[in-house]
């Protein structure tokens, strides 16, 4: 043992060294460990562990000599024996040993799951990705020509340079180079196509386009609903990754892939122009697939969830002759700098935790979820303010990267957003049940009858609940979430290709075009339990933008958001065509502008906080807006959902249909199905 430890300590692989483990368990002097009663108890436990693992590994090694397929297990047992040998010399008690091993295993699991997310092999996409093709299309970094009138009038006028895919003539065209173009990734799924004439109900080929939003893409359809409809209508499925997200980033230069000078070309209009180039390429057969799937022409239906839903609707409104219709679920439709309504909506959602929805079935606990969450987050707020050492200790508990330097207010934003996401993703039942199980809903805790004990229950309970969730497809949900750069300004400053595929680009969108700064609302009688710290105000978000991007983002330059989103939404809710994205004869259609009507369906669910940014007011003909509630308006008539599986939040209708889904959710899916079928029949000359 004495010979083993120095070699391990000096090894660069520090997974099992004392120096890589929590200080509370690794820095006690050897003399102190050996002289305590705890050490004697720990030593006894270690002796049993060492004997067991040594015996098991020895037996398996002998067995492996005769049975080769057991060799893998023998190596594992031998490694476990060595690990036990090392840890037992460094840890005084069974509790310290078990805690340390648990923490290391959790960290390894987190890293493995994050790796899967980064590589696009998360469980939710594996079955689709295996049958899909990956392609790249070269597009201009800047699709637009600025109108010279802009300098005189101050009006923002931009005209598309063209829609003929430039990668059809690259690198032959001298005006396009590696430096002023961008490769955008897309996915194609042809498994639902049927080449037999009799099996097709349409003369033209249905084709579904799933637009990418503020994250990396891993497959064509992205959502189960898209695939199920594709199977029904024998449709081609294509998914495009949003520029500057995932792998669709400019090449590395001295300033990095995501330096601000390049991010100037990240906005919704540029992304829609990427879509136009891709569809032009596929419609022409230039992707090399000129077989049965496109010889009669495509009928494109666009799909999108959240911000991607907005893009789908805007793209259809701007290019109705190219995109037949659009399904947009949970789509925010207008830019909004400050967004306190999100927190208020989350509070209101928790008020439904009553009757059949009471946490853990305990009706006495009804109505206590929001107060408990508010108390827990307020406790964190106070501890963070109490001292830097206290703040650092909490960050280490959450396993945040570089906890000594992680900004305190970024930590507050991280915690508050986890709570909001529980409602957004339809998980408030799960959260409330967990709060109940952790003892956070007890009256004695909420009334703070024992300050020290209440504080301990609230802090540890919140951490436990978020760590246990099956969040983002993993069992260490919040731990995965914390590894993203989204809440870490130090990480977001990095201009190189992002590991998480989204943070810096999305912050640019927020700071320049969409806003949605989730500030703390004022405490009122209607909303008595604000979840966010008062420090999460407009100044916090503006300072974040300035520290990450300097003054180069739109908010830093003009003091307000750009007019891109407003211009796009005017196409859907206004009475006249906005000139911000001209699509004249040379820009969009060889036959000139068309009179194609709008065909857009927006769907929202009342539990989703982002409904607050949804379509408001009148819309143009052909635009449908459906808002669904999973709760009856009759007192006591709420439709009962299982505590863990019920989902009626953000983009709920795009998820896979389950037997326990509420009626309103299934009705929304049926309406999407009916409308898609109608659009295809109208466009594709139905066989009778």
Short description:
Helix 9 links the parallel strand 5 (205-211) and strand 6 (236-240). 44% of the residues lie in helices and 10% in strands. Helix 14 packs across helix 15 (388-397) and helix 14 packs antiparallel against helix 16 (408-424).
Question: Can you describe what's shown?
Answer:
- This protein is of the alpha/beta class.
- 44% of the residues lie in helices and 10% in strands.
- The chain has 26 helices and twelve strands.
- It has helices spanning 4-10, 23-26, 30-35, 37-66, 71-88, 94-119, 123-129, 150-153, 224-233, 260-263, 268-283, 307-318, 341-350, 369-386, 388-397, 408-424, 428-437, 443-446, 451-468, 477-482, 489-492, 503-514, 538-549, 554-558, 564-573, 663-683, and strands spanning 133-140, 144-146, 158-160, 181-189, 205-211, 236-240, 298-305, 325-329, 336-338, 515-517, 600-605, 623-628.
- The strands form three sheets. Strands 1-4-6-5-7-8-11-12 form an eight-stranded mixed sheet, sandwiched between helices.
- α9 links the parallel β5 (205-211) and β6 (236-240).
- α4 runs antiparallel to α5 (71-88), α14 (369-386) crosses α15 and α14 (369-386) runs antiparallel to α16.
- Residues 1-42, 60-70, 103-126, 150-155, 290-295, 470-479, 575-593 and 632-645 have low confidence and may be disordered.
Mean pLDDT: 76
What structural class do helix, strand and pairing data support?
A: alpha/beta
Q: How would you sum up the major sheet? A: 8 strands, mixed
Strand numbers in spatial order across the main sheet: 1-4-6-5-7-8-11-12
Rg is: 28 Å
**C-alpha geometry:** globular
Helix amount, in percent? 40-55%
Total count of helical runs of at least 4 residues: 26
Distance between the termini: 83 Å
Which blocks of ≥5 consecutive residues have pLDDT under 50? 1-42, 60-70, 103-126, 150-155, 290-295, 470-479, 575-593, 632-645
Percent strand: 5-15%
Per DSSP E runs of 2 or more residues, the count of β-strands stands at 12
């Amino acid at each position: 043992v004495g010979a083993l430890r120095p070699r391990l300590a000096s090894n660069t692989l520090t997974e099992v060294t004392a120096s890589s483990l929590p200080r509370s368990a690794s820095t006690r002097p050897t003399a102190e460990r050996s002289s305590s009663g705890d050490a004697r108890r720990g030593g006894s436990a270690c002796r049993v562990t060492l004997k067991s693992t040594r015996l098991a590994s020895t037996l398996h090694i002998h067995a492996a000599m005769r049975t080769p397929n057991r060799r893998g297990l023998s190596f594992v047992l031998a490694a476990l024996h060595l690990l036990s040998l090392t840890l037992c010399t460094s840890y005084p008690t069974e509790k310290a040993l078990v805690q340390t091993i648990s923490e290391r295993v959790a960290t390894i699991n987190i890293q493995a799951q994050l790796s899967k997310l980064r590589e696009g092999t998360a469980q939710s996409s594996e079955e689709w990705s295996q049958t899909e093709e990956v392609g790249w299309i070269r597009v201009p970094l800047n699709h637009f020509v600025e109108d010279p009138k802009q300098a005189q009038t101050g009006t923002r006028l931009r005209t598309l340079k063209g829609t003929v895919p430039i990668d059809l003539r690259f690198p032959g065209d001298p005006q396009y180079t590696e430096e002023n173009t961008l490769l955008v990734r897309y996915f194609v799924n042809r498994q639902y196509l049927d080449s037999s004439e009799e099996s097709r109900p349409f003369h033209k080929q249905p084709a579904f386009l799933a637009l990418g939003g503020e994250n990396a893409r891993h497959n064509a359809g992205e959502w189960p609903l898209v695939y199920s409809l594709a199977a029904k209508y024998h449709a081609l499925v294509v998914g495009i990754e949003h520029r500057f997200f995932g792998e669709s980033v400019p090449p590395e230069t001295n300033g990095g892939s995501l330096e601000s000078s390049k991010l100037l070309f990240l906005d919704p209009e540029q992304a829609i122009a990427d879509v136009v180039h891709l569809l032009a390429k596929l419609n022409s057969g230039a992707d090399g697939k000129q077989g049965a799937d496109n010889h009669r022409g495509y009928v494109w239906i666009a799909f999108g969830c959240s911000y991607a839903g907005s893009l789908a609707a805007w793209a259809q409104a701007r290019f109705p002759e190219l995109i037949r219709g659009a399904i947009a679920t949970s789509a925010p439709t207008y830019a909004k700098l400050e967004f306190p309504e999100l927190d208020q909506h989350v509070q209101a959602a928790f008020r439904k935790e009553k009757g059949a929805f009471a946490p853990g079935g305990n009706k006495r606990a009804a109505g206590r979820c929001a107060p408990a969450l508010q108390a827990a987050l307020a406790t964190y707020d106070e501890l963070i303010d109490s001292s830097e050492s206290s703040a650092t200790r909490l960050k280490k508990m959450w396993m945040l990267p570089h906890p000594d330097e992680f900004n305190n207010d970024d930590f507050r934003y991280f915690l508050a957003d986890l709570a909001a996401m529980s409602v957004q993703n339809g998980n408030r039942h799960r959260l409330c049940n967990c709060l109940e199980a952790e003892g956070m809903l007890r009256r004695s805790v909420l009334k703070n009858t024992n300050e020290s004990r209440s504080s301990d229950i609230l802090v540890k309970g919140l951490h436990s609940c978020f760590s246990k969730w099956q969040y983002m497809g993993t069992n260490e949900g919040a731990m995965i979430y914390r590894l993203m750069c989204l809440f870490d300004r130090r990480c977001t400053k990095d201009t190189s290709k992002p590991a998480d595929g989204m943070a810096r680009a999305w912050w640019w969108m927020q700071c320049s075009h969409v806003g949605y700064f989730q500030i703390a609302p004022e405490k009122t009688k209607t909303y008595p339990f604000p979840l966010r710290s008062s420090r999460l105000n407009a100044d916090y978000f503006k300072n974040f933008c300035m520290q990450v991007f300097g003054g180069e983002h739109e908010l830093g330059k003009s003091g307000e958001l750009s007019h891109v989103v407003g211009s796009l939404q005017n196409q859907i809710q206004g009475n006249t065509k906005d000139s911000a994205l001209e699509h004249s004869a040379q820009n969009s259609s060889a036959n000139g502008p068309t009179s194609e009507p709008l065909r857009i369906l927006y769907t929202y669910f009342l539990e989703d906080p982002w409904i607050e940014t949804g379509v408001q007011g009148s819309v143009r003909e052909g635009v449908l807006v459906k808002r669904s509630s999973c709760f009856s308006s009759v007192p006591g008539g709420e439709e009962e959902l299982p505590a863990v599986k019920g989902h009626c939040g953000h983009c709920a209708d795009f998820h896979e249909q389950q037997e326990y889904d509420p009626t309103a959710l299934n009705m929304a899916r049926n309406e999407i199905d009916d409308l898609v079928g109608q659009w295809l029949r109208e466009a594709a000359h139905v066989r009778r």
